[in-house]
């Protein structure tokens, strides 16, 4: 039998265990092992992508117990896409971390590996409680990664992030308790099927349960009233962590999408559970992100607010929940993850060259030779602001088209376009400050800048180029990518095939309690 | 009985939430602990009341409690314990870095 | 064949854009010549296509890209496209040569030509797109390229801001255009022009037509600098003159009017079109002409004259008669020619004089007669002097204004009168340009001494002015045919028969021209009154400073707004989250379409006995006590442990021994943890949150509690069907254990446990990383530093107790699979036993005796658990398959226990390792802080 579906989880787990057993062997050992594991995981993700492309839903029964009684991992196109995006991002992340950041405090690579294990598990599991467990794994890893390094604001930000997410975890458990207490199952496919059978008298309870579940995911996705923590937190994180965190919001969006498509939308009890409000709040999220960008005084903060904008955009797609909208949002997800991470990276490269000024958007010392950085910045700015001809435009175009039929297409389009313009203007202003405004002859700053230029920029060039090439490749690859995401969305529509694959056709015996 | 339990849980949750909203990290930790008590019991109650025997699959066993929620609660308890421990660590760290044990204003840089 | 040529034509400029910068490294002139070569190459590629177009064919080339999203690489060339392409490439070629002499010698020009060629490519893309979304792609690319070109001299403050201003206006317009085109595509059912242009009636009938039209016009007007979006254009004059001559006369600004022409058959023919396009054009025409006269900087004058002429062209399309559209196309050509030459001439003068202020530049005719002649001719054409090309298109326009169908009665005179006035204004500013610059006395202290430029620099101007004359004298011969095919493409039908001639007889339009001339010269002569007036007349937004101010204010406003909603306080985030969840939950419960929403379910309520009531009371005391004493930390802890005990008892009462055992041991461990942590926190804290806030929190908490209780009650009073019967049934046969909970943990849902120990391990490691090098001052005053106060009695008691406790733990562990117990509980008990040693004997004693590498213990635990899981692969079974399934009968018992136990052992080790690592860290923290004894004495 093929163990493929579980391998993405096993590889980083084993890597983490080896790191623990061999701890104290020095950073070189850790870096090498960690890098190897991540590169291997990326190849693995590619394999998953290819395997899933045949449209079959592959089920991996842990402990060889049949669903819904045991836990199953489910490899379908959606899971493959999410794993692939994460794995692709992990490579530049580890390359950045290798440049000394990983030594600032203990166990960085252990947490990095377990973070990835948690993410992959969350994307692959077909069981709601197991999803909770993976959420906890990836959260605790993210706490540790966020706290990584010595920095007062970072410690404060971590405290806030932890507290908020602990509340989220409690809420997650409440939702699960109610879901089990009503549907009597934890398996996603099974619960999706059971939703249709809910008695009228139980409908409000079930509905509320899923509403709470959605709230948990939306907290992760930083939807409007729940998202204020995000910019400062991301801006406080160390560079590799900030880059990796770009996928963290996507986990919430993925989970919501998974639950919605598992049968939420079609069951009487939970029909239109999200739609009356989600779109509007998503639009609000985009708005807040745009406002945050205008207010931002640092490029890192701009990037962090860009995460909010993309979250809102993605949630618009989830709310619409049509095949085209899901296809569009998945394409957008790939684009925004890569580009935003790259933006964090280039912000740091620029900051390193500006000494004490860091990446504040005001004129500072000359950056020295800026041909490469300047070009990279320009390309990223174009992609990030959704301007033609790069991936940002294509993705935005798809999202806008997929929303045409929705009742609030107007507001959505407006939000997307305005946010795009704001992004362009803010990034143009920043570019003007970094690259164009005559340098200030501030000896100390210039000195510091010069000092850091040598050791920082060159090693960071490789990950930057990796991300950049990926981002640019999305243009020629737009057609195959869009084909894949469309097929993914279509596959999510095939609920029955999914259920049959997971649950088989044997009747599930249930026991009435009390 | 149901009403008694519901009231108890509601009270726990209310106290927990109130403490979670206090300004100092220690109170927040207390609050989250109370909250997790309530949540764990709620999960457990997913199996409903009225069981007459612990979930031991002995021959001629009758009225067994629902084992599944119990297993979930066990997991939840342990995870909750880990989280509490970590929260304490972060609180101490924040205290060490900034000299204050307050969480309000903690989100900002 | 010609399809390939068409695609090649689009591609070549981009290849050039990529290559020329490389060439530029070798030499400057090489860059110039290669750039020119690229333009020339494109022109030659255009030739075969031109032939096809002139015989009336429309060539469409298509590379499918994202058909399902309506975006294809589809190109078309027809009369209009051909005409525009000729302008873009022809003038582009001249600009390239001109720039070689104009741009400072030290500039290698690599960047300049690179961007310029990319821009030319984008312009070609706009005019040669068949797919409108593709057209938009190129459209926005021109905005981007112009941003880079305007900011070319980025050391200059104004250039930087002007560039961003242009980006803001044209880019923003482009976004509106995107929305408009998407709607247009939806209305027409296709994004291909060849379809859209045929569906005019469907489109005009669509209810959303007005919105769509406005959005598209926003795009066109911003690009073509129509009032009130014109202000970016004059500021864009901060660009090097070759750029202005190219972008701001012949190409980019023409993209807007091109769009009007391109979509004319689909959009025009409605009152709304007449109103919007006509009015905007008219206002811009007059306003631009009016302001142009007031500009002392002749480049500014030319900029506003461009605004004015773009308005004129827009107006011609707005008039919405076939002939006026023809006139529009004709003027588009003429304006491109004379305005490009004027800008280049202006550039020469700027170059020679070192200033652009017409109050200082005078009488240049004496110093550079040839350039002067060229400038005068071009300017006269701009003014509409007969025998020059500008005159012809203006006459056509005048003709169209007379007796326009939209006006009747006396109103018929409105349009001609307006046209005459506007004409008068353009005569005036042209007169100023000619008279001030070339005559009007002597120059006033110019930075440089002006003289004729090198012939090569003047050549492009000469070529263009020759065209001005040729078209002026022999219009039909020179432009007749191209104008015909272009107009044909615009109208998508044969244009009305027209004959281009210099002399149409003495008619009303001619009279209008003459009047315009007379008044124009008069107006120029009396200009000084206006100047005085203008000093007090500044336009908002029109200056770079103003734009920067607006941008800054937007930033400030956002900061202010954010500060209002987001004060960076986690407490507020928590409150928001709770409030959101409450609202959402309430809405979800009530918004069900089903009538029955009663809280209580069908189950009969079981009577509450005294014990449970007592438990409730104790719980209440504990919980409320915790809240009441939360500022006095130790007391709070005590009350909280009471709650914990009640929970434990509840578990026992409700038949959950495993939970009870786990909970109680977790209790002990967490309490100890918190106590250790308390050393570093002040014994009392103050809850200084204002009453209002406390009230808010109270309300939120109260509602939350109610909601929680309601949900719990609703659930408890409803029966449900669960799958857990299967687990009970298969626990012994399948899992090989009677304790179903434990079998679920290590077998049915062992994967959860795997993840859970990972979490536990990470928590410990996280603390390890956090506290590693942390230095904290313990609160000596705090009553809680029992970590190193250890009564002898306790110590003596505890030491022997340790082995006992460990034995218990071992027993619990072993029986776990069949009776309450298992890895967790055993691990926690062992941990508790060891903790007791800490408490009893102090951290130093314990730490000295327990020198294990807890990290490795952890790792080993995880490793064992994972290995057990992976072992099943060897037997071709999935991860974590328990062992008993695949060994022959006699060994069943033995093996299945072995497998499950191995996993549980992993759990055990992780639990012990984690707990001890945490405690060791906290202990180390305390030790680190104990001041060395010598410090006390000295």
Helix count of chain A, per DSSP?
19
Unreliably modeled segments of chain A: none
Shape, per Cα inertia axes of chain C: elongated
Order of H and E elements of chain A: HHEEHHHHHHHHHHHHHHHHHE
- Strand percentage of chain A lies at under 5%
Query: Which class do the helix and strand fractions of chain C yield?
Result: mainly alpha
- Average pLDDT of chain A, rounded to a whole number, is 92
Number of separate strands of chain A: 3
The averaged pLDDT of chain C comes out at 88
Radius of gyration of chain C, CA atoms, in whole angstroms: 43 Å
Binned, the helix content of chain C reads over 70%
Q: Structural class, from helix and strand content of chain A?
A: mainly alpha
User: What distance lies between the first and last C-alpha atoms of chain C, to the nearest angstrom?
Assistant: 97 Å
Radius of gyration of chain A equals 22 Å
Verbal overview:
The complex is a heterotrimer of chains A (514), B (109) and C (938). With 514 residues, chain A is mostly helical. Chain A has a domain at 277-503. In chain A, 73% of the residues lie in helices and 2% in strands. Chain A has a two-stranded antiparallel ribbon with strand order 1-2. In chain A, helix 1 (7-21) runs antiparallel to helix 4 and helix 10 packs parallel to helix 12. The radius of gyration of chain A is 22 Å and the shape is globular. The mean pLDDT of chain A is 92. Chain B has one domain (2-50, 65-98). In chain B, helix 1 (2-20) runs antiparallel to helix 2. The relative contact order of chain B is 0.14. With 938 residues, chain C is mainly α. Helices cover 73% and strands 2% of the residues of chain C. In chain C, strands 1-2 form a two-stranded antiparallel ribbon. In chain C, helix 25 (570-590) runs parallel beside helix 29 (691-716) and helix 31 crosses helix 32 (750-771). The longest helix of chain C is centred in the last third of the chain and has 38 residues, at 892-929. Chain C starts with a helix and ends with a helix. At the A-C interface, helix 1, helix 4, helix 5, helix 6 and helix 8 of A face helix 5, helix 6, helix 24, helix 25 and helix 29 of C. Strand 3 (511-513) of chain A pairs antiparallel with strand 3 of chain C, so a sheet runs across the interface.
